[in-house]
């Protein structure tokens, strides 16, 4: 059957560590970044994207998740609805298809949570790469 995708992530790194790991030269809205063990759609998180200068990368702290342009401007945004896209189907989804060529970013994280259904509740399991372990050791 179909499985849900992770909607919870962790980024506990200091701003300096995030800048160093991403190679960004600038960070817009840096003051809105707060390290967190539980980032969910709608929360402020850094996103890495092209900068103004050719070949330059920069970070911008923004709300995690996509609110499509066709969403009613008066409606409350539902960041959970469009927080993930599967690589094998993203080009077929209208909300993502037109963004692929020019409106992409990378959201740096230390790891993410997957949920295992258990009787009476869901149990979160944290998944990260060994490369992230060094960043967490200094916190």
TrEMBL record:
Domain of life where this protein originates: Eukaryota
Per UniProt, the keywords (alphabetical) are: Covalent protein-DNA linkage, DNA damage, DNA-binding, Hydrolase, Lyase, Protease
Q: Does the keyword GTP-binding apply?
A: no
Please name the SUPFAM superfamilies in this protein's record: BB1717-like
What GO molecular functions are on record for this protein?
lyase activity; peptidase activity; single-stranded DNA binding
Which InterPro entries does this chain map to? SRAP, SRAP-like
Per the record, which residues fall in region Disordered? 1-23
One of its GO biological process terms is: proteolysis
> What's the family?
Belongs to the SOS response-associated peptidase family.
Q: What is this protein called?
A: Abasic site processing protein
Question: What organism does the UniProt record list as the source?
Answer: Diacronema lutheri
């Amino acid at each position: 059957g179909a499985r849900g995708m992770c909607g919870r992530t962790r980024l506990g790194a200091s701003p300096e560590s995030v800048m160093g790991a991403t190679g960004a030269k600038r960070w817009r809205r840096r003051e809105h970044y707060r390290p967190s063990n539980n980032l969910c759609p709608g929360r402020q998180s850094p996103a890495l994207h092209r900068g103004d200068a050719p070949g330059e990368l920069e970070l911008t702290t923004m709300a995690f998740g996509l609110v499509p342009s066709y969403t009613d401007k008066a409606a409350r945004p539902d960041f959970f609805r469009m927080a993930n896209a599967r690589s094998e189907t993203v080009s077929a989804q209208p909300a993502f298809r037109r963004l692929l060529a020019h409106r992409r970013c990378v959201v740096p994280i230390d790891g993410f949570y997957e949920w295992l259904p258990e009787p009476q509740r869901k149990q979160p399991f944290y998944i990260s790469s060994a490369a992230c372990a060094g960043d967490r050791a200094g916190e």
